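Late entry, evening session. Most of the bench is empty. Finally got around to the prediction I had been postponing all week. Sequence below, unchanged from the version circulated by S.P.
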Amino acid sequence: MKILVYPHDLKMGGSQMNAIEIAAAVQGQGHDVVVFGQPGPLVEYIGDLGLEFIESPAVRRRPSLAAAKKLRHLVESRSVEVLHGYEWPPSLECHLAARQKEGPAVVSTVMSMAVAPFLPASLPLTVGTHQIAAVEQASGRSAVTVLEPPVDVTRNRPGLRLDQDSFRMRWGIRPGAQVVVIVSRLAYQLKLEGIFSAIDVVSGLARGRDVQLLIVGDGPARAEVTCRAEQTNSSHDRKVVLLTGELDDPRAAYDIGDVCLGMGGSALRAMAFAKPLVVQGELGFWELLTPVSVDRFLWQGWYGVGQDKERGRAQLGRILSELLTNPACRAELGEYGLSLVRDRFSLERAADTQIGIYSKALRDRTTFAAAPNTDWRAAARFVNYEGRRLLARWTGREASDDFNSRPIAARASLVGRNAP
């Protein structure tokens, strides 16, 4: 198959990493894959994995007619059979590019915490959790597949030569200090509340033990996180909270941690390094991954919603205190997470599933002319969405992370269950 993969951008992020790594694994099984998009930090990684990169036109508004036009040209000049958009803007642009007789198959992957309601129902959809799939199927979508975020367990594993000594020296990690690690985008939605809670909890623990919190990542909330970290360090007269900013290769951070906090793909990468994982969510959600708690995460994804921020901080404090004083428990839970990732979340398994999705989409592809009703309904919903977003911008209430600000897990009553 000739496949074009189109991530929503090429900055560091879980959805983008999934898109690129799965694309490389699919190419490794004998298919012709190119990656399309706006240049960004991940372009070098695309080349390192042996993938061809094609630059899209400059994008100002989404969906972009210029991007759709370039995609249509590539379909014709390269005989592309499958257009694969990640998240709603590329998915709509791929859909627009394929609106022609005998057009390519189009598939969409959404790794956000909820699916945009204006994605056409005729579009084959892949989501990251069984809970989101259930909601989409209940809304009338029939072509919904679950593909859990994969991990390259060859590049992410214990025992790699990652030069921990140099990493510790560069970022000010004290010899003998225990390290709690967060690798995360510093975003207002989903992330910031948990990062602040982790800073406060580790600050409290640091009064009685030598522990440091290592935060890896960048984003719109960096100034707020930096300010909170500086205030914490000043109160201790030593560095308790360390900020690295964005790292092109954060593997050494996972490798150096005694405990990792995280959600989504970051949580899975921590498990791949055999680290005990505390899953981060919102409204005070913190839960330790164990054989007892795992079913919840396999259903709703590596995320959750609590009920009280203060209670959540206390819960995180108890979990970290127990883990940091119990090396045997850390080792046991780390091995459990590593085994789970290798058995269920490997990149090879994800590539097999993705190839199956492409093959089915080619067999079942639907042209625009064959599905006008779903397209017009989707267009009406998009106009409604744009109107509400414009109103929110005027009133200062716009959510910067779009559908991640309205996660399905926070609306579990829609499907009436919390575990499989």
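Two things to note before I forget:
Residues 372-394 form the longest helix (23 residues).
The chain has 15 helices and 13 strands.
Will write this up properly tomorrow.
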